[in-house]
Design goal:
about 50% helix, two-stranded antiparallel sheet, single chain, 6 strands, alpha+beta
């Protein structure tokens, strides 16, 4: 017959063994966890910084002054890729990383019943001259402008001066329609709502949100204009480092450049979160 002392020690021993076994099993489970889960959010911060460093290095390597001004040769240039017909009805180019991110966003939107279409992408300097001078020659208004600066300010509501457009960088695109009325339709509202909720997941942000106290200067709101921030944030830094008003010329009305804060109020007149380097 086992006395009560021996019984106490046996029970205690079994309890300790069971506890150690449970602890070992728990440790095994912890060992199976991905490093990213164990170290999160520190791991995520490290990975994000690594990606940021790679993007910054990409911009530093490729985005010289001519690139930022749109004065590059796009034909047979390995930096650019032609957008596939399923994503556009036009001939459009983007830089490789941006297009890859867009394709992921496109598929996600499509699975939610939203059809995205790229209507504009990278623009060369002379392509922006065409866009600008089209409005310079026909500003579509009965306003009599006092001088070229006032006329330029009117056109700058929706058109960028050549050499100042984010489209020169290959990081920005216009989606679905340039017409304001489209974004008030049922389809337009559904597309915009999807983008505002999901685009950031793929790195895209609306460059020109509504003009208000948060964004007091720059172009009017453009619900169609979306920018790939992971690269564009460093493009802007590089632009401000390399480009000055002296570099913006060669088109009708360029005499107004020196009379307007084109860089500080229009190039930098973007949604505040677009100015923040992650």
């Amino acid at each position: 017959m086992i006395n009560r002392y021996k019984l106490f020690f046996i029970v205690s021993y079994l309890f300790i063994v069971a506890g150690c076994k449970a602890s070992t099993e728990n440790n095994k489970e912890e060992e199976k966890q991905p490093v990213s889960e164990v170290l999160s959010p520190a791991y995520e911060d490290i990975e994000k910084q690594k990606v940021n460093n790679e993007n910054e290095a990409w911009v530093n390597e490729h985005a010289n002054k001519n690139f930022l001004l749109g004065k590059v040769k796009r034909l047979n240039n390995p930096l650019f890729v032609k957008v596939a017909n399923e994503h556009t009805e036009r001939t459009i180019y983007l830089i490789h990383p941006v297009y890859e991110a867009y394709k992921r966003m496109y598929e996600a939107a499509l699975s939610d019943g939203i059809k995205l279409t790229i209507t504009s992408g990278h623009r060369l300097f002379y392509e922006q001259i065409y866009e600008w001078e089209l409005r310079w020659d026909n500003p579509r208004t009965n306003i009599v402008f006092a001088n070229d600066a006032e006329k330029a300010k009117f056109i700058l509501q929706y058109r960028s001066m050549p050499g100042t457009s984010r489209h020169h960088w290959g990081t920005d695109m216009d989606l679905n329609s340039f017409n304001l009325s489209y974004w008030e339709t049922k389809e337009g509202k559904e597309v915009y709502n999807w983008l505002t909720k999901n685009a950031a997941t793929y790195g895209f942000f609306q460059s020109y949100t509504a003009l208000d106290e948060k964004r007091p200067t720059g172009y009017q709101e453009e619900k169609w204009h979306w920018s790939y921030k992971p690269l564009a944030q460093f493009m802007l830094v590089k632009y401000l480092e390399l480009v000055s008003l002296d570099d913006i010329f060669g088109f009708k009305g360029d005499a107004a450049v020196k009379k307007l804060p084109v860089i500080s109020e229009w190039v930098c007149g973007i949604d505040p979160q677009m100015k923040e380097v992650d």
